[in-house]
Write a sequence for this structure.
DNA sequence: GTCTATAACTCGATAGAC
DNA sequence: GTCTATCGAGTTATAGAC
């Protein structure tokens, strides 16, 4: 709780924290109010209801996360450089905000329509360019013939999954938080070289 | 709803369906009762409360899912065969029950203690054998020097992640259910050959 | 075992004073 | 803008008849 910032900002910061931790259904307006140092009534004064408050946070979180993927994938670098960039930037980013991937996946699963309406609406399919690039580099003989969609799935899977399954991984292996994040820092390089090795001609 | 089976079995079948679809917090006892063709009071007669009913389903689902992983990983085949087995068996299995991975991940995230108490308690760490095998095959020169934990993470990530992110993937790419499952059927072979290619000496 | 009725409680939302 | 007090809907859980 930050007593010095404006009420609305404190609400947003607290809502983000609680929603990221527990999702829409798990979060309690009371807990958000407590964390922000105000009462429930004031939450409704600023954001008319729970849904609207959640929407604000959801869009905020998704809009600072997904564009990073697409920005790198749609850049102008050669494919190998993109992959390298993606792995290091992306895993680095998730290490800073490890709850974000699970939050997004969970909420898109619970209500895909919200995602379509609030986030995707009006945006064009963001994978066109990278798919074209993959096909072109195949034709040029830089990489082996590869299904572009599978390749993209591979990259994203390898980077994100461990953070989704983190509680289970740590439970099953007995890793501490420190162990886990250390493993993830190594992983960036690991994933990158594996992907590139698997596709280079 | 199966009118011919016993009440308890019908409750379990309905609870499984509803809990898998919506999780502990999203599921309503009323919906489970409706689906089973009985009333709420009878749910409490058979399973004292929602938690206990959920625990039963959770343990059931996890116990028929995780052991499949461990059985293959702890078998006696050479590593390459294990990986091949794992990819085909595992993706094939998930295609049959595509909601299971998300259900498990979500509920372990929400309450890791339940997982520890109800599932892991008393079981020994299940990755010892496969890790030893990986290290041995490295020493024998069959596979390249590799961090065993990263390798296992890679295999599991590649197989499971697409099913966790399925609603988002289908939204972003515009794939139909049929398209998606077709892609996943190809994927088994795809993942297998990629992994093996990346580690063979 | 199975039902109806309802108690007990949680939680989002609102009224109204300051 | 911010608070206290309270309403009312929705849910789990129980009492008690059959």
């Amino acid at each position: 709780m930050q007593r010095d910032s404006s009420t609305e900002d404190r609400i947003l910061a607290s809502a983000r924290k609680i929603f990221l931790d527990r999702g829409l259904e798990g979060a309690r307006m009371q807990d958000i109010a407590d964390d922000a140092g105000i009462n429930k009534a004031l939450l409704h004064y600023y954001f008319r209801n729970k849904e609207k408050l959640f929407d604000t946070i959801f869009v905020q979180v998704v809009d600072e996360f997904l564009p990073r993927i697409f920005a790198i994938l749609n850049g102008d670098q050669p494919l190998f450089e993109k992959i390298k960039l993606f792995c290091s930037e992306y895993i680095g980013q998730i290490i800073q905000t490890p709850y974000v991937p699970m939050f997004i996946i969970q909420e898109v699963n619970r209500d895909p329509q919200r995602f379509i309406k609030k986030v995707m609406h009006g945006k064009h399919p963001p994978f066109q360019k990278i798919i074209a690039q993959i096909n072109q580099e195949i034709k040029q003989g830089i990489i082996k013939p590869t299904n572009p969609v599978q390749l993209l799935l591979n990259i994203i899977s390898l980077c994100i999954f461990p953070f989704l399954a983190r509680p289970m991984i740590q439970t099953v292996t007995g890793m501490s938080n420190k162990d886990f994040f250390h493993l993830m820092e190594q992983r960036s390089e690991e994933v990158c070289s594996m992907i590139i090795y698997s596709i280079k001609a």
Observations:
- Residues 28-30, 40-41, 43-44, 48-50 of chain A lie near DNA strand C (CB under 10 Å from a C1').
- Residues 50-73 of chain A form the longest helix (24 residues).
- Chain A touches chain B through 46 residues (CB under 8 Å).
